[in-house]
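Predict structure. Chain length: 361.
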Amino acid sequence: MRVYLLSTAVAPLGSGLGGGVEHMVVTAAHQIHEAGHIVRVVAPAGSKADLPDLLVLPGRLAPTAVTCDYDDSRLPVEVDSFLVAALWWLAEQARPNDAILNFSYDWLPLFASRFFPCPLGTLISMSSLNRALDMEIRRIVARAPERLAFLSIAQTASFGVNGTARLIPPGLDLASYRYNAAPSQDYCWLGRIAPEKGLEDVFIFASRMEATVTVFGVMQDRAYWNGLAQRYSDVPVRYGGFLDMPARAEAVRECRALLMTPKWLEAFGIVGIEALACGTPVIAYRRGGISDYVRDGETGWLVEPDDLDGLCAAAKRIDRIDRASCRALVENRYTLTHYGAALADWLENLAAATGSMGAMT
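Prediction complete.
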């Protein structure tokens, strides 16, 4: 089978601005290729990744859905956008025996999926953010559920989707994440530096706990970071840069715990399993897919959203967590083998449903 992967339309691969989706696209390409399929990844210009076959197309990048108002039903189709160029190219190239897996969280490929000659499935990478997308997702779930896959239980619930939805969480190459049983006393935070990630709570945590926190991630909103750094100039929070692998894992494995402080409903939060793979437990707000892998007292502590007192209290009992249990959870649920098997099963179901998909209205 020839399988086309449509990457996120908000940023080039390798930029870090696409968040965990970048990791999911690249690892999916390798897993599907190793399963014997012909794979081609279609991504925005400027993309850089070690892939079997990468096609970059020009065009305007899409705005992230995080910045859109939920009730804004205006969904402009920009004719010079990357997403339009990619869908045109795929429509011309795809044949009935092919398959397309879309990783772009956008209304257009969801809507267009009914018009392609081959099955077009979408891995939904965010939680509910826009009414129009929610309506399209629920429509597809009702009529052709094999076209959609999700990342976590909480994410599916945000769309009002029942428990029968297909879940395909990301997987990690465990060889790249060295386990560490004896970390330092410092904490870390990992992700895109943007307001929805809640970094202000990290500064307050560091101040109250008198603990050093190193922030790793792409500097998406420098004004946001600079404002926090100026407001909390005497707080022991430092920026450790945007690290590629394996440097990222080497830094995280040395930390006592990873803090996750989202102000939005995280669909999954791949940085959490990256930390657990190193044996580093997670202290997180109970928001979204994080609760799929942070288990109280076993792999970290879940705190009620925005509860700074709870965040600090959890840090005081972080030594109760067995770091070996953190690693074991990833070994049992979130490896490349698990991810590849889930993708293979999805592709099989998409192919089996091809005959009925063309008749969908």
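Summary: Residues 336-352 form the longest helix (17 residues).
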